[in-house]
């Protein structure tokens, strides 16, 4: 792993330890003490400096949970060092950056995957199954929201807007496919006009379904989506950063009443770690994951342009 990040400490590294197909060899930090703290916590080696870790020959793949502005540079360096890469979202700041990393990975025969853990929680496949069964009739509309509050004590923003925007946009792609038209998008900046803090996007699928997506950095916590059909609605709360012990509740509201379908907990982080390892170890299909990075980056670019144009 490159960078002793909070998400790695809280979710990814404990999950890698629980995933039998992954062996955590070493963690790298810019600071020796930090790497050592992580190494003690997770029973692996500490390395000072990311380049040193990449130079090691006993490492097949790296997990990159660096701040988004550093993803492109360190994904490139990892690929040049011959490592497969699981990179945190957003994989790249622009489509051009994503294209350049994917081209390098393809050239070297290496796997690059964007770490959308939530896609590996089985609750979404279950929603898809229920929709296909016609539980809420014909799908008419979709909405998804992800927002997080400001840090406590006036500490500012915990993330950048793209880091939260990618969740509603990626879940729309999951359900509605890649061929999404951007009907409009809007971004609101902070009072100084420098930092984007909230956004909305409206997308249209070839089926005619419209997706309304909202995201923000100064909001009460919200991570949910709703499918609206001709016969009712289906809502999933805790849709994105779902805790391992959370039993998901799919709320179905139809003319006959309200029903909560409770699912078994699932660990999306353990699942994605296994999924990534399987692709590397069993010679999985690398192209699908690289294509997903490109299609997603391309849509993010179109949403960004629409927002710059003012909707
Ligand atoms: N998939 C998910 O569920 C999920 C959830 C939260 C966050 N994320 C994503 O994961 C990534 C990391 O997020 P995080 O909140 O965990 O970040 P974080 O705690 O700030 O960690 C980022 C790490 O990057 C390293 N780093 C290198 N240069 C840095 C610099 N100039 N400034 C700050 N850090 C630097 C630091 O490690 P060293 O000091 O050890 O070098 C730092 O600990 C982001 O892309 C974020 O969007 C994903």
UniProtKB/TrEMBL annotation:
<dbReference type="InterPro" id="IPR000683">
    <property type="entry name" value="Gfo/Idh/MocA-like_OxRdtase_N"/>
</dbReference>
<dbReference type="InterPro" id="IPR036291">
    <property type="entry name" value="NAD(P)-bd_dom_sf"/>
</dbReference>
<comment type="similarity">
    <text>Belongs to the Gfo/Idh/MocA family.</text>
</comment>
<feature type="domain" description="Gfo/Idh/MocA-like oxidoreductase N-terminal">
    <location>
        <begin position="1"/>
        <end position="114"/>
    </location>
</feature>
<dbReference type="Pfam" id="PF22725">
    <property type="entry name" value="GFO_IDH_MocA_C3"/>
</dbReference>
<dbReference type="GO" id="GO:0000166">
    <property type="term" value="F:nucleotide binding"/>
</dbReference>
<dbReference type="InterPro" id="IPR055170">
    <property type="entry name" value="GFO_IDH_MocA-like_dom"/>
</dbReference>
<dbReference type="InterPro" id="IPR050984">
    <property type="entry name" value="Gfo/Idh/MocA_domain"/>
</dbReference>
<dbReference type="Pfam" id="PF01408">
    <property type="entry name" value="GFO_IDH_MocA"/>
</dbReference>
<keyword id="KW-0560">Oxidoreductase</keyword>
<dbReference type="GO" id="GO:0016491">
    <property type="term" value="F:oxidoreductase activity"/>
</dbReference>
<protein>
    <submittedName>
        <fullName>Predicted dehydrogenase</fullName>
    </submittedName>
</protein>
<feature type="domain" description="GFO/IDH/MocA-like oxidoreductase">
    <location>
        <begin position="125"/>
        <end position="234"/>
    </location>
</feature>
């Amino acid at each position: 792993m490159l960078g002793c990040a909070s998400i790695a400490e809280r979710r990814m590294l404990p999950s890698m330890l629980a995933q039998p197909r992954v062996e955590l060899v070493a963690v790298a930090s810019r600071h020796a003490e930090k790497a050592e703290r992580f190494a003690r916590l997770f029973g692996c080696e500490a390395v000072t400096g990311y380049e040193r870790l990449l130079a090691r020959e006993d490492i097949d793949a790296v997990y990159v949970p660096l701040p988004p502005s550093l993803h492109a540079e360190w994904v490139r360096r990892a690929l040049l060092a011959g490592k497969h890469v699981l990179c945190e979202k957003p994989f790249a700041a622009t489509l051009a950056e994503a294209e350049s990393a994917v081209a390098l990975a393809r050239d070297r025969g290496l796997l690059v995957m964007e770490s959308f853990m939530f896609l590996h929680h089985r609750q979404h496949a279950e929603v898809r199954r229920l929709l296909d069964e016609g539980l809420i009739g014909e799908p008419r509309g979709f909405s998804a929201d992800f927002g997080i509050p400001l840090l406590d004590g006036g500490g500012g923003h915990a993330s950048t807007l793209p880091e939260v925007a990618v969740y509603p946009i990626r879940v729309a792609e999951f359900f509605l496919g890649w061929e999404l038209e951007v009907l409009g998008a809007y971004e609101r900046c902070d009072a100084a006009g420098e930092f984007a803090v909230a956004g909305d996007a409206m997308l249209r699928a070839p089926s005619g379904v419209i997706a309304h997506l909202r995201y923000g950095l100064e909001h009460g916590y919200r991570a949910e989506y709703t499918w609206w059909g001709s016969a009712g609605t289906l809502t999933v709360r805790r849709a994105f950063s779902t805790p391992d012990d959370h039993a998901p509740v799919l709320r179905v509201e139809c003319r006959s009443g309200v029903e909560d379908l409770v699912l078994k907990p699932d660990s999306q982080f353990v699942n994605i770690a296994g999924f990534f390892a399987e692709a590397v170890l069993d010679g999985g299909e690398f192209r699908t994951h690289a294509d997903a990075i490109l299609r997603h980056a391309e849509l993010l670019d179109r949403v960004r342009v629409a927002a710059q144009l003012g909707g």
